[in-house]
Amino acid sequence: MKIAFIGLGNMGGGMAANLVKAGHEVRAFDLSEPALAAAREAGCTTFTTAKEACAEAEAVVSMLPNGQIVKQVYWDDVIGHAPEGAILLDCSTIDVATAREVIEVTEAHGYQMVDAPVSGGIAAANGGTLTFMVGGTKAAFARAQPILAAMGKAVIHAGDAGNGQAAKICNNMLLAIHMIGTCEAFAMAEKLGLDAQTFYDISSVSSGQNWSMTSYCPVPGVGPTTPADNDYQGGFAAGLMLKDLRLAMEAAKAAGAKVELGDHARSIYEAFAKNNAGLDFSGIIRTL
Ligand code: NAD
To answer: How far apart are CA 117 and CA 263, in angstroms?
Structure first.
């Protein structure tokens, strides 16, 4: 299949390469020359404009920094340039309202579109093991599914347009809350004279058990190997967690949802990211 891919950054670069490996003809575009060079190396055909990349494409995948850029790319470069009837997949993490607006407008122009944000970081993008949460009609999902399956280990239909983004920000809000809670528990255990490994051995088989503890332990040397064992380098940057929490708070306000802990987590990550935006989000334990 001829697939245009727009946004070949940390995530998009690996995802485009996996589409090539799956046998697709990938028509790649990014504003950055090094990103284009890496895409050529991975077997993509590169173009000097997004419009050219979209021409002739049966599908368009985008992986861009934010909602404003997504809107600009779809308005200026995709609508009227990708052939009518093409399936459009935006995998960026953006606000729910913009995701719904872009799908509504592109579908009014004769396209089918899904929002398909991802769970999993750069390693999962490179390894083709992302989880996609997908919003859109059943028909659009059916067309998007095999394309996404070439880049991930799980592709889940979350419901109508925008529901992929809704699932993503609700999930990441919960992740932020249980990571902070897990860090507080380890820090308090230490202050009470309890060894971190002993606390892990008890809590990981008790009711405090959660993903932040047993899959992503914030304490070095305890549990599986995590960014904590690499001085909190790599993993999921605190700055990206803050981005997702801000999107979650925006959505909560629009929907009238009460999210006191989510908002508290946002303020904690806001303070942390001021000087540690590039550090893994589990590094929050250093502030305790
Ligand atoms: P990135 O900044 O590395 O990549 C974004 C790319 O988009 C850059 O190469 C940039 O040059 C390009 N770009 C910007 N404007 C453009 C335009 N108008 N036309 C074409 N290209 C343009 O970011 P990333 O880490 O790859 O993240 C991409 C998206 O994935 C974000 O929405 C992010 O929130 C989400 N995400 C990231 C991670 C992660 O661990 N990095 C995990 C999950 C989700």
So the answer is: 22
29 pLDDT exceeds 90? yes
pLDDT of residue 123: 87
Q: Which atom of ligand 1 is nearest to the CA of 66?
A: 32
For 10, half-sphere exposure in the C-beta direction (CA atoms, 13 angstrom radius) is 12
pLDDT at 121 over 90: no
CA 285 – ligand 1 centroid, Å: 27
Distance CA 70, CA 90 (A): 8
> So which residues are the catalytic ones?
168
pLDDT at 234: 84
Instruction: For 238-274, give the DSSP string.
Output: HHHHHHHHHHHHHHHHHHT---HHHHHHHHHHHHHHH
Instruction: Name every residue whose Cβ is closer than 8 Å to that of residue 35 and which is 6 or more positions away in sequence.
Output: 8, 9, 12, 13
Q: How far is the CA of 202 from the centre of ligand 1 (A)?
A: 40
| 16 CB within 6 A, ligand 1 | no
Residue 209 tokens, joined: 């058990």
What structural domains does the chain harbor? 2-160 (3.40.50.720), 166-287 (1.10.1040.10)
The finding on whether 13 has its CB within 6 A of some atom of ligand 1 is: no
pLDDT of residue 120: 87
Task: Identify which of 18, 29, 30, 242 to mutate to test ligand 1's pocket (most ligand atoms within 8 A of the CB).
Answer: 30
**Sign of the alpha-carbon dihedral angle for 151, 157, 159, 165:** negative
The 10s digit of each residue's pLDDT in 140-174 is 999 999 999 999 999 999 999 999 999 999 999 99
Q: Are 64 and 6 in contact (CB under 8 A)?
A: yes
pLDDT for 193 beyond 90: yes
Tell how far the Cα of 260 is from the centroid of ligand 1, in angstroms: 29
Beta pairing class for 45-46 and 25-29: parallel
Are 93 and 123 spatial neighbours (Cβ–Cβ below 8 Å)?
no
